[in-house]
Specification:
Blueprint: E1 3-4, E2 6-9, H1 25-38, E3 42-46, H2 52-64, E4 69-75, H3 78-88, E5 94-101, H4 104-111, H5 115-130, E6 136-141, H6 148-161, E7 165-170, H7 177-190, E8 198-203, H8 210-219, E9 224-227, H9 241-250, H10 252-255, E10 257-258, H11 266-277, E11 294-295, H12 298-306, E12 325-326, H13 334-343, H14 350-364, H15 372-383
Parallel strand pairs: 1-10, 2-3, 2-9, 3-4, 4-5, 5-6, 6-7, 7-8, 8-9, 11-12
Helix pairs in contact: 1-2, 1-11, 2-3, 3-5, 5-6, 6-7, 7-8, 8-9, 12-13, 14-15
The structure holds 3-methyl-2-oxobutanoic acid and zinc ion.
Zinc ion binds next to loops.
Length: 388
């Protein structure tokens, strides 16, 4: 039996902190609707105290979304928490997400507070949030650079004050997978009443380890993953939803967890985000890039034509893409060219196929990518010899 991992999408909040990814209110609402169709359990709609615009957008999303929980982020300060509640209170399932930093460097230089003061602020913040709703998430910002025993204390305090989700973020993408998993396990094992809360992680990608760290935390007992579409977010971004979800789905026997994500909605959602923020999806991007299901080498193409499982660990259809792309080029073999010509509707004999094969090879030396239109032109010119 697989355990459920809740998907908390923060594209509309942390994702929007990605340079150049600012969205208008209408765009946010459109994306929120798409996130709901995708099946996210919780969406973080924004940071209501940050600006009037953010407040309005969060309120609109809260009024629009019907099934997913809608979270608003707030610092551990009374006015932030009140503003957050004002923005989300119309939601069918509202959540207040309050946070305070717990690492020595953040407490000393950013907050200028002692650990005892931070504990007091965390307790007061969670209590205030819990006076509005029973659905309260508490985050220990920069958890991965915090003292583990202090994390245990903050966790106990937050649970006692009413938090039902405890999030331990790798705010600066500093953690390593094994170490991060150990930290999560340590807090779950040592914090009193840890069974009363769902443990969550929120990993940044500064060392390219956001998804690996999230997976390691899941193995250690975390049951909520904070992610963004295409991994957009502050600096190098956050753990990418599509990577995390497809890793747990493709290797379900290994992780033994499942999510509620309708994976066929992944590609349409990534495309919508890309259009909204005006940033194209890079060709080599995992799962959603143009090359993710494209096969160029003759050996791979031949294998794929015999059995897709030779070089595909998931199908393009399972993530909402049309089909595998057999890219014809100088590495392609006869089999791939035969497959492409019949896909285009031509039935060529061996001689004709040899002619097309040689023409494609010749063209591939001059042109980076051979398109279907090129193949058709070759067939018409070399096989049917259409005169000018
Ligand atoms: O990266 C981080 O620590 C955050 C928190 C506010 C959850 O975004
Ligand atoms: Zn973050």
């Amino acid at each position: 039996m697989s355990d459920r991992v809740y998907i908390f999408d923060t594209t509309l909040r942390d994702g929007e902190q990605s340079p150049g990814a600012t969205m208008s209110e209408n765009e946010k609402v459109r994306l929120a609707r798409e996130l709901e169709k995708l099946g996210v359990d919780i969406m973080e709609a924004g940071f209501p105290a940050a600006s009037q615009g953010d407040f309005e957008a969060v309120r609109k999303i809260a009024q629009t979304v019907k099934h997913a929980q809608v979270a608003g982020l707030c610092r551990s300060m009374p006015q932030d928490i009140d503003r957050c509640w004002d923005a989300i209170k119309d939601a069918a399932h509202p959540r207040i997400h309050t946070f305070i930093a717990t690492s020595p460097v953040h407490m000393k230089y950013k907050l200028r507070k002692s650990p005892e003061q931070v504990l007091e602020m965390a307790e007061a913040a969670v209590k205030r949030a819990a006076s509005y709703t029973p659905n309260v998430e508490f985050s220990a910002e920069d958890a991965s650079r915090s003292d583990w025993d202090f994390l245990v204390k903050v966790t106990e305090t937050a649970i006692e004050a009413g938090a039902t989700t405890i999030n331990l973020p790798d705010t600066v993408g500093y953690a390593q997978p094994q170490e991060f998993g150990d930290m999560i396990r340590y807090v779950i094992e040592h914090a009193k009443n840890s069974h009363k809360a769902i443990f969550s992680v929120h990993c940044h990608n500064d060392l390219g380890l956001a998804v690996a760290n999230t997976l390691s935390a899941i193995q250690a007992g975390a049951r909520q993953a904070e992610v963004t579409i295409s991994g957009i977010g502050e600096r190098a971004g956050n753990a990418a939803l599509e990577e995390l979800v497809m890793a747990t789905k493709t290797r379900n026997g290994y992780y033994q967890v499942e999510t509620n994500i309708k994976t066929e909605r992944i590609y349409p959602t990534c495309r919508l985000l890309s259009m909204i923020i005006g940033q194209p999806i890079p060709a080599n991007k995992v799962i959603v890039g143009a090359n993710a299901f494209a096969h160029e080498s003759g050996i791979h193409q031949d294998g794929m034509l015999k059995n897709r499982e030779t070089y595909e660990i998931m199908t393009p259809e399972s993530v909402g893409r049309e089909k595998t792309d057999i890219v014809l080029g100088k590495h392609s073999g006869r089999n791939a060219i035969k497959g492409k010509t019949s896909e285009l509707g031509y039935s060529l004999d061996d001689d004709a196929l040899q002619t097309v094969f040689e023409a494609v090879k010749g063209l591939a030396d001059k042109k980076e990518r051979i398109y279907d239109a090129d193949i058709e032109a070759i067939i018409l010119e070399e096989v049917y010899r259409i005169p000018d």
